[in-house]
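During the no-cost extension, the postdoctoral fellow (Dr. R.K.) reprocessed legacy sequence entries with the updated structure-token encoder. One reprocessed record is reproduced below for audit purposes.
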Amino acid sequence: MKRVIILFVLFPLSGWALAPERILPNTLVIKPVSWYAEQRKAWAEAIAQRPADPAAWLNYYAASVFAHEATGSLQQIVSEMGKAVPNSYEYWVAKGWSVGFTAEAREALQTAYRLKPEQSEAYGLLQLISEFDLNKSDRGLFSKGLYEKSQVSASLLNYSYNVLMSLEPSAVLITEGESTTIPLFVLQDVLNIRQDVTILDLDLLTHQWYATRKFQETGIVQAVRASSFSEDVRAWICSQLPDSNPNRKFYYALTLAKDNITSIKEYLYVVGLASLHSLTNVDNVSQIKRNLEKEFLMDYLLVDFSGESEHDAGRVFSANYLVPMILAYEAYVKEGKTQEADKLRGLMEKIARETGKSSIMANFLYGTNTESIPYYPLAINAKSWEEEMRPLTSTTYAARTEVTNAQYNRFLEYLTANNLSDLYENYKFDFSDYEEPALSMMINYSTPRVETKKNKFFNHYPAVNVRYEAAVAYCEWMTQQYNQAADRKFKKVKFRLPTVDEWQIAAAGIKNPTSWKLNEQMAEVRITPKGAEMDKNAEKRMVSLSEPEILYPWFRYYGLRNSALNTKGCYLGNFKASPCNCPGYRGSKPNSYDGFTTMGPVMSYFANDVGLFDVVGNVAEMVNEKGSACGGSWNHSPDESTIRSIHRYEKPDASIGFRVFMEIVEN
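Re-encoded structure tokens follow.
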């Protein structure tokens, strides 16, 4: 039962040093993994003082699951519970939780239910076990219990209602995970909503016994999977069902893991809170507008009538509205429907604010006071642009380098080639603060040159002396060109400057972060004696990035987490450096102990764990908040050039550049 989470409410013990809090189900709240990791420690201390408290044990187990502890660790907890609180209600709940969709799980959960039928802790699992057994009566019983005991948040029920209303009659909806599937079953079983929809949960379908019987019951044909077929079973199910059932309409919840739908993404069209699979073009924007205008329950998004927290499951999922809303908003603007566009814009801003995406949305909606850049066809290599991007999440990418002179000059050449002289004057390199001889030096630095084998000139150095508005315009130009390219991989993207939070996550090299807050992340590091950071037998440990000493992207070599120098005494970035003992740099001119006096070529140092170069040092990088730049530069000391460093600027400067991020709007 790999992704299935028990629905329960436990009351915390009081008076413990780390303040253990009750662990609520993912159908009520969804918190960062780091929070659950801290709660795991807190409940472990509670158990140490009250080893016979079954509620503390179940909270400890739940926190461990949500903190993504290894299976062996979870099994050990259940084993210890069997000794400390044997035959308790909480033990049987944890036991049933731990052994998947099996007869043993069924027996354990039924035992818990017989002991305390009025308690709701096991209702979620019992609902799913009942579905696994295709026992509609029992599934309805536990769906009713979940509803009556308010074990699914009101906003999640509203969200799930809108998922169902995204679908046409008699559709098949593929889902994954308890936060998506449990509320859908509750709506069907208790409120009789969209009972025509067949819900297929991937967690259940990975069990062949269930899949065979479910498909027989619903009349769905399943292809035979070759034993040598290497594709993940979930991805295989998602791809083969439409092929084997051409007369059925298949939809995919927006909450599905992207790996499950990668092979079919070119056939998926977002129509609301689900994507429709179609081999032919679909006017999905019209469907989105109809759903938003006529089908969806929207009031709960406008008013926080239930006092739910920012971690409420439905509130967390509400970020999924932004993609369809963006598509509808753009359509309204093009159609001249200003009233509809303004109303939707206000709602988008509210959702973005509540889900931590306000900076992204502000950049999308308003950008800056830049003038619109007319589109003219330009022969670009979309694949090469894509290859420059490194994934942070399934929808957010970062360029591996800062924008170079060569890249920025292509933008300026586009403006001059299309007689956009006014825009060129606005967005050209700004040398207004320079006097000779510095002026000639900076012009020479920024001017495009034809490269030779012996001389690359400054083409691959970071573009500097660029105004904030010009950087935003460059991103807009990239967006226009890419979205018109015939050979592009993604249907629609937006290139933009990152938020500070996004930049810090990218700089730290965190892939698939649990949130966009650096201090909420956990990462594995190598613990070694001082000077032995490269030891292959290093101890590995999970640490919180809230530790203030974690300053540089190479922090995974834990002994170097707050050092700008490696074990040989060499600088790991282009900083305003002090004398060092690096071989080859002894006796260097002041400020060039790292190899460069000012800007250096991009990719001069090692990349971080997600493949980004020069995130600290070289040039500080503009973010979407005008006047802020992150990471320090050649003109900042190492202490001022960390993954946490934010500097203020008032005008273009030779120490400030920018890095482009890419947001996938539609796959």
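The CA atoms of residues 472 and 496 lie 7 Å apart. The chain has three domains: 33-135, 154-355, 365-667. The remaining legacy entries will be reprocessed before the final report is submitted.
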